[in-house]
Write a structure and sequence with these properties.
The protein is of the alpha/beta class. The chain has helices at 2-32, 61-75, 97-107, 124-137, 153-162, 185-210, 215-223, and strands at residues 45-49, 81-85, 115-118, 145-149, 168-172. Strands 3-2-1-4-5 form a five-stranded parallel β-sheet, sandwiched between helices.
Length: 230
């Protein structure tokens, strides 16, 4: 019983430390990538990473903040256009997050020709990979601007680096009254879980690659494992 208790305490300590790291890294990104103010004028495409949705089919708070920043970058000539990335929502059969974000962006002043939809992804890694596939299909090879909120930014940049995608990182500063002075506890806890999920997946994928498994064989193995869609 004593060993089990010590292991539980150790596990709890590791989780608390990782949660503290998520908070510190989030604050760093909020300070250094605030609203993309550091970015010069550019024709580079902006990849706006999707989040969730509300009951009326519009983007949720993180999704709205990310979308607003994507619109701001295009309208201030810091991005040539925006790719709104997000597939079918988990709670519906037909609501595509990327389409909901583009519709919201147009209402915020984005010209219809200023946005594209990537509607097949179900996780941050797929957001990045599928958006890059879309851009390459259209002949774009300029490093894109990555648009997300400051809590999500560090993990998104890690996954971009893992995929070999060069990006210029920016973070959304929360504007909702509930987010101004405090970080949302549930969102931070979810992000902590997402870090562990992604790090373990990267470790397993790397081990399989070193063991000689092909891309197709690795994909087949992961198809059998439920994804957390984060």
């Amino acid at each position: 019983m004593g060993v089990i208790w010590r292991l539980l305490r150790l596990g709890l300590g590791v989780l608390l430390l990782s949660q503290a790291a998520v908070i510190l890294v989030a604050e760093y990104h909020k300070t250094h990538y605030r609203l993309g103010n550091h970015l010069p004028p550019s024709d580079a495409p902006a990849i706006v990473l999707g989040a969730g949705h509300l009951a009326d089919g519009t983007p949720d708070i993180p999704g709205r903040m990310r979308t607003r920043l994507g619109v701001r970058l295009v309208l201030t000539d810091r991005a040539g256009f925006a790719v709104f990335s997000g597939g079918i929502a988990e709670t519906t059969d037909d609501l595509v997050i990327g389409e909901a974000m583009l519709a919201f962006a147009i209402k915020r002043g984005l010209p219809p020709e200023g946005g594209l939809v990537e509607g097949g992804s179900q996780s941050t890694q797929e957001n990045l990979a599928y958006s890059m596939d879309l851009l390459r299909e259209r002949g774009f090879d300029t490093p894109p601007i990555l648009v997300t909120d400051y809590v999500h930014m560090a993990r998104a940049r890690l996954l971009a680096a893992y995929l070999g995608i060069e990006v210029a990182g920016i973070a959304v500063v929360p504007r909702n009254p509930h987010w101004k002075n405090t970080l949302p506890a549930l969102y931070l806890a979810r992000e902590n879980a997402a870090w562990w999920h992604n790090l373990m997946r990267i470790a397993v994928e790397t081990a399989l690659r070193l063991a000689g498994y092909s891309d197709a064989e690795r994909a087949q193995l992961f198809d059998r494992v439920p994804d957390l869609n984060i």
